[in-house]
Amino acid sequence: MKLSFKSITAALAVSGVLATVPLQVQAAEEQFVPLFTYRTGSFAPLGIPWADGKIDYLKLINERDGGVNGVKLAFEECETAYATDRGVECYERLKNAKGGASGFDPQSTGITFAVSDKAPVDKVAIETVGYGLSQSANGSVFKWNFPLLGTYWTAADVMIQDIAKKLGGEDKLKGKKIALVYHDSPYGKEPIPLLKARAEANGFELQLYPVTAPGVEQKSTWLQIRQKRPDYVLLWSAGIMTPTAIREAQSTGYGRDKIYGIWWAGSEGDVKDLGQVAKGYNAITIHNTGESKGKIYDDLKAHLYDKGLESGKDTKGSLAYNRGMVISMLQVEAIRAAQEKFGKGQHMTPEQVRWGFENLNLTEDRLRELGFDEMLRPVKTSCENHMGDDWARIIQWDGNKFNVVSDWYQSDKQYVDPLVKSEAGKYASEKKITPRDCAAES
């Protein structure tokens, strides 16, 4: 039974702590979710639908369910324009807001790097779905980081697997040339260690082509590609860099069907204006293609769209919008998992939400209840594994839309796990972190 404000006031007055009423009432009635967004800048074509999807799912939880077990979600956007300094400013301003942040999704590898040292001190989780520090999958070292559903190492590995499948087997990779055209930033450099390990093991030549931000000038890069003639190109881009790369590929005669874009380069906004120019372009995705169907969209229509409450009037149903919803769903389920342990229907502290991220268990049945069964495969996290289960598929642009053209892949642990272990170990040594004993904690 919910007490009235007068009842609470009277009770607190008796105990002599009347001054704390505003904080106590706020903490009991809402859970704060900060939202880093970039609706401006060169990455805006990706950032806008991404932000819309995140917000609309949080709105849905409030409108349909009245919050998480009755605890309403409060949220606030903070525009970063993908700039690391602005992201750090957002983090510092929001980490203690409204009872404490229920985790941060920085939406930037650079910002993630910058706040990962702060998170253990501030005791707040960093949620990086499909990006961030790839070695942070190791939860014994990275207690506060959660690269859920996959990392740039798992993505790069799946791309190589799909190329090998097209060639007729991994042994056919030997002697091939594979190029990485990447945004010259922490984001673009992340897959390099995995690709180097794969190149050494599989005998292919790895060519590296950094592109200066924002990526509008790539002529010299693609002239080099025309000269060096790689068999395949992996594209680590976002925003304006992606359509620029595809146009340059066309101008130099490089087949778009030989290009694989990372998931941030695989949204409709990247290719819809190119139409047939981009036909054959491949991308990787951690969920199924952007389609506005299924239970989740039925609920959105009934509780948001029909009432004119949606943020994404022009973005709903797109790949990036759906990915934003997935991110917020994982955030909400972490809060829900925390409530199951620490108090159903209560406000959760940032530390309790961190426990929720570490104990996610989204089974097929649970995904069906949530309406995400057509988008995602099951995922479960643990103390040791902060990524959970990585599943990915390849999609291809047919000139009008993206189509799924592969089965579900998982990364090959023989290549990914040693990197996670070694790089996490180096990080622990550099930062003087004593790894957790997960066996003892369980």
Automatic annotation (TrEMBL):
CDD domains for the chain: PBP1_ABC_ligand_binding-like
Signal peptide region: 1-27
Domain of life: Bacteria
Pfam families: Peripla_BP_6
Transmembrane segments: none
Span of domain Leucine-binding protein: 33-399
Entries under InterPro entries matching the protein: Leu-bd, Peripla_BP_I
Record key words, sorted: Signal
Family to which the UniProt record says this protein belongs: Belongs to the leucine-binding protein family.
Protein name: ABC transporter substrate-binding protein
Organism expressing this protein natively: Advenella alkanexedens
